[in-house]
Amino acid sequence: MKTILFVCTGNTCRSSMAEAILISILKENNAAEKIKVISAGTGAFSGDHASPNSIKVMEEKGIDISGHRSTLLSRELIDEAAIILTMTQNHKRNVLRLAPDAAEKVFTLKEFSYGDDVDLNERNDILDPFGHSIEVYKSCRDEIEEALRRAWEKRYFKFCVE
């Protein structure tokens, strides 16, 4: 079984939502048993709950992340992952500082989902909603979901499920 690792800063907003959204997409496509999906944060305090606004906006999609607990990014998690999807270029750099040999398997989520269609300077990062309004969380959730659905439809996860 291949592992997909999502990375953000605190592992309480973006990466926890991305993890849950991809699991939901996998379930919709009868592929949940074929891919392990995990998340971590570059500055996470292990054991923190998902942020209340993340929980709320995911509930609107019928996804419960109230049981999520944050995990600090480690070399072991990087080594376990077949693909590492970060929320920003800075997160990608942090992964590569821990594991320079992971360069071929680490991408920002938008690089992975949109490839050459994304403007790497302008639109590549998924901004942190922490501390912002519920509307910002909804926008972040929708941006993550759009990217993951595109990646699934383009069969970018194909090698993980075959």
TrEMBL record:
PANTHER family reported for this sequence: LOW MOLECULAR WEIGHT PROTEIN TYROSINE PHOSPHATASE (PTHR11717), LOW MOLECULAR WEIGHT PROTEIN-TYROSINE-PHOSPHATASE ETP-RELATED (PTHR11717:SF31)
Sorted UniProt keywords: Hydrolase, Protein phosphatase
Phosphotyrosine protein phosphatase I domain location: 2-155
Catalytic residues (positions): 8 (nucleophile), 14, 128 (proton donor)
Keyword Hydrolase applies: yes
GO molecular function terms attached to this record: protein tyrosine phosphatase activity
Organism of provenance: Alkaliphilus serpentinus
Pfam families found in the cross-reference section: LMWPc
Family per similarity comment: Belongs to the low molecular weight phosphotyrosine protein phosphatase family.
Name the record gives this protein: Low molecular weight protein arginine phosphatase
Domain of life: Bacteria
InterPro entries: LMW_PTPase, Ptyr_pPase, Ptyr_pPase_sf, Tyr_phospatase_low_mol_wt
